[in-house]
């Protein structure tokens, strides 16, 4: 089991995990956040949110300047201390947002697929869809290597859409509220493996990794850490892991930040 004296690296999803799914509150996690700051334990946020959104959450959580993974792995921000790194400050995997939107609009025009992207609507509409504040919704639209959308067509048409997406070298990821499309190079697992190498190279040590997530799209995150916390979530689809060994994986009884705290309490003796 990991210990606070070990070189720990914590990797956490945001919505439904560190943040309450309905209210976006996180205070139940504040005890561990304080310990991580005190012990200089990195907390890598790994989310489908945009980089602009995550930077704001880093400010609120008191972890500004740390590495993070945005847009489900398509964007990786390096630690502020690593200014000499070749990929500093940010790595983009796969297609840039402008290219993605051209491809999506072409598919819409050619096949008549019905879906609505974040880029198609104004900020007020996003506020209605998400429950975010006006500022948060504006930041959510600042995507760099992926696009979020609502599917508005039949399941049959979705299957055809998924085929066209794959032919273009793109992939679909189902988040808690929306679908996301990005290049196949941009999943959370690939992003985490690459970022872990950056930690080893820049910090000169090996880390014990603990990952926390609540949805099916977090499986690639949780499959690429030493210890995994599956926070109880609201998705109708289960979180299916390649290695669900109870010695490595803990399934929380509580939702959101309460489950986040519960999982860390289970794996790390706070004393």
UniProtKB/TrEMBL annotation:
Class of enzymatic activity (EC top level): hydrolase
EC number: 3.1.3.70
Coiled-coil region: none
Keyword Nucleus belongs to the record: no
Keyword Ribosomal protein in record: no
SUPFAM superfamilies assigned: HAD-like
Alphabetized GO MF terms: mannosyl-3-phosphoglycerate phosphatase activity
Keyword field: Hydrolase, Magnesium, Metal-binding
Domain of life: Bacteria
Annotated protein name in UniProt: Mannosyl-3-phosphoglycerate phosphatase-related protein
